[in-house]
Design a protein that fits this description.
By secondary structure, the protein is α/β, with parallel strands linked by helices. It has a domain of about 240 residues: NAD(P)-binding Rossmann-like Domain (Rossmann fold). Helix 1 crosses helix 8 and helix 9 crosses helix 11. The radius of gyration is 20 Å and the shape is globular. The protein binds nicotinamide-adenine-dinucleotide (NAD) and thymidine-5'-diphospho-beta-D-xylose (TDX). Thymidine-5'-diphospho-beta-D-xylose binds next to helix 7 and strand 8. Its cofactor is NAD(+).
């Protein structure tokens, strides 16, 4: 039925989850319960404008907490779980993989197990309506050579502790569908960029450093390729999968926008030159610095998103040029957000490489 949904959104104080919560409250009549542990990557500053929103509740907690999750499902009559909560940064997973195993694997297991217990007690109509959507990544497929694309049939071949933990979680999600019949959906998305991304990831890190006139650390030869998608396009894709995706199905999502890291950094530098013509750091390209490569650095990711385009009518709306411009403007206009989230509780590791 078409009644408004009540969603448990985990990781909603992070980058994509935060954008998703905003998108949903603006563009639908859904109720949103955000569950977030507020790690170094999760910040109430991202949800600051929603504190008094009548359809939003924030809960501070761990997806691995069985009692808490079970109670939330019952208390709020949840009909949809969207799992964004994760340790998400590849460099951190190299230095400290334990947290990745705990949240990404054990935490997802706990969510699935709580969801199954709750779902199995629902009346028939509510059981049919229930969905568990796992937000996953293209990194589970490993690394591509110069040609070819990842699609829904590509075998998993994760290379980093981060991608291995996401792959393990995806396998659990699949098993809960095939073994228990839990109505799950999985999306595997390429690199996102946009507002509220923590400034440890390539794009916001380079903007923050360039504005301060600091060296821009490029790993290896800068020739690694990522397929960039504006975060709002990812949010719209998740909503389409939720609305019309087949239970048990997997949907790759991507921007059809492959760039080398050097191309990304050069474009950012040129945008900053244009937006900050009086900066003493112009031309910003002079700040580029090549540093030691990331261990096990995947060379190329690229998604074939034709399944979600064909079956669900989704396509990316933002181009890389328009999306990157919006993103740079957002960071320049929201420097207080950046300062707040980096000051909060930030124990930087390998920040900026080198
Ligand atoms: P992020 O690091 O910005 O946010 C993660 C959020 O999860 C934070 O708010 C954090 O506090 C919260 N969290 C961490 N551990 C938790 C726990 N145990 N319990 C509750 N909350 C916890 O990450 P992001 O970039 O927004 O990524 C969100 C999801 O999307 C992740 O699952 C990630 O694997 C996936 N993904 C990300 C990208 C990307 O480019 N960023 C691409 C594809 C898929
Ligand atoms: O300082 C840097 N210099 C640099 O050259 C940083 C932080 C990154 N890089 C390179 C490494 C990658 O090739 O830029 C590329 C992008 O790096 P990240 O922003 O760390 O993203 P990536 O490792 O590609 O993973 C991201 O996309 C897929 C997210 O962090 C994951 O959560 C998501 O699953």
């Amino acid at each position: 039925n078409d009644a408004p949904r009540t969603l448990l959104v985990t990781g909603g104080a992070g980058f994509i989850g935060g954008n998703f919560v905003h998108w949903l409250l603006t563009n639908s009549t859904a109720r949103v319960i955000t569950l977030d542990q507020l790690t170094y990557a999760g910040h109430l500053a991202t949800l600051a404008d929603l504190t008094t929103h009548p359809r939003h509740v924030f809960i501070h907690g761990d997806i691995g907490n069985r009692e808490l999750v079970s109670q939330l499902l019952i208390d709020y009559h949840i009909d949809t779980i969207i799992n964004f909560a994760a340790e998400s940064h590849v460099d951190r997973s190299i230095d400290g993989p334990a947290a990745f195993v705990m949240t990404n694997i054990v935490g997802t297991f706990n969510l699935l197990d709580c969801a199954r217990a709750y779902w199995s007690q629902l009346a028939n109509e509510q059981r049919d309506r229930f969905r568990f959507l796992q937000v996953s990544t293209d990194e589970v497929y490993g690394s591509l050579g110069a040609t070819g694309y990842f699609n829904e049939n590509t075998p998993y071949a994760p290379n980093s502790p981060y991608s291995a933990s996401k792959a393990a979680a995806d396998h659990l999600v699949r098993a809960w569908y095939h073994t228990y019949g839990l109505p799950v959906l999985t999306t595997n998305c390429s690199n996102n960029y946009g507002p509220y991304q923590f400034p440890e990831k390539l794009i916001p890190l380079m903007i923050a450093k360039a504005v301060r006139g600091e060296a821009l650390p490029i790993y290896g030869d800068g020739g690694n390729i990522r397929d960039w998608l504006y975060v709002e396009d990812h949010c719209r894709g998740i909503v389409r999968v939720l609305e019309a995706g087949r239970a048990g199905a997997v949907y790759p999502i991507g921007g059809n926008s492959e760039k080398t890291n050097l191309e990304v950094v050069d474009t950012l530098c040129d945008l900053l030159d244009a937006l900050l013509p009086h900066s003493p750091h112009c031309p910003h390209r002079q700040l580029k610095t090549f540093v030691a490569d990331r261990p096990g650095h995947d060379r190329r990711y690229a998604i074939d998103a034709s399944k979600i385009e064909r079956e669900l009518g989704w396509s990316a709306q933002e181009t890389f040029t328009s999306g990157l411009r919006r993103t740079v403007e957002w960071y320049l206009n929201n420097q207080s957000w950046c300062q707040q989230v980096t000051q909060d509780n930030y124990a930087g590791q390998r920040l900026g490489g080198g």
